[in-house]
Amino acid sequence: MTSGRSNAGQYANLNIRSAMGSLTTNEWRVEKQTGFDGLHFSKNVPIPDLGPNDVLVRFHAASINYRDLIIATGEYRYPTNANIIPGSDGAGTVEATGSRVSRFHVGDKVITLFNQGHHAGPLDQRSMKTALGGLLDGTFRQRGVFSEEGLVAMPPNLSFLEASTLTCAGLTAWNALYGSADHPLRPGDVVLTQGSGGVSLFGIQFAKAAGATVIATTSSDEKAVRLKELGADHVINYKTTTDWGKTAKSLTPEKAGVSHILEVGGPGTLRQSLAAIKIAGLITGIGYVSKSGDQPTLLESFSAKCTVQSIVVGSRAQFEQMNRAVEAHNIHPVMDQKTFRLEDLKSAYQYMSEQRHFGKVGIKID
């Protein structure tokens, strides 16, 4: 958040706003939810006028989430609007502001908020209807108009590509570890992450910064080495150790169990998570990557004597809290070695769909 405006910023703002009619953007849209071929790229699309509380953002980077892939294929379990601009994650600079905007000025570096209406407190039905890339036009474009309330200031220690990964995966991991007033992450806690997706990698970084012990699961020895390098204290290959829940519990102090589990698998992993969790521990349901599995009953969940919750990313207040921690601990998101240009978005989708990545897949824009 910034305060005050320089004279130069005011003049730059006025000049850009006077030229709004001539500004255009290149953008992707999900014309059909039948696969990646349903994505359509358009050039030189006119920018809409700014409302009094709106901000024009010129994107420099974006990143892809698993959610983006399944919106394109029609497998997403939440509502989406037709012909939507996909992408929830983006970072860029403010090019113009509406007459009543007070939170940002021209030249500020900003990041998009996933649920544009989720500013603080618990998620509600109204906020759920403001999800970027699903119900509101998203970030896979050069420029976009957003409410000033749907943006946060970018941590100064990050590049645009790094910052563009925080919106969904970063904030989801942060909310899972710090969002519950009854189960905040504390030094000495044991955190279990699943796989090497964006949320899990952020979970490792946030947990280690807090002084926690991390147990990570993975499907390959190669990925296990990289998870160790990232800070995981123990790594379990779930392909060779199918009963990994008990193994994880045996690695905790007094074999009492894990304090926090970032549950991304869903049907295929929840039973093992229940075997790993400690009494009064917290399992946070984040995703449903595995389509099927030996799912436990509700009564079995009760028997574990733990809390099981489901979250959808997090609020703007949590985002700003997370960004302060990212700056204070100089945390840098894990990026895949390969990046793509905006016009190559279909190739980026395919690359991620084939699970050839490790870390967040970034999109360079301008």
From TrEMBL:
SMART domains in UniProt: PKS_ER (SM00829)
GO molecular function: oxidoreductase activity
InterPro entries for this protein: ADH-like_C (IPR013149), ADH-like_N (IPR013154), ER (IPR020843), GroES-like_sf (IPR011032), NAD(P)-bd_dom_sf (IPR036291), Zinc_ADH-like (IPR052711)
Coiled coil (residue ranges): none
Entries under Pfam families matching the protein: ADH_N, ADH_zinc_N
Segments forming domain Enoyl reductase (ER): 35-363
Protein name per UniProt: Alcohol dehydrogenase superfamily, zinc-type
Lineage: Eukaryota, Fungi, Dikarya, Ascomycota, Pezizomycotina
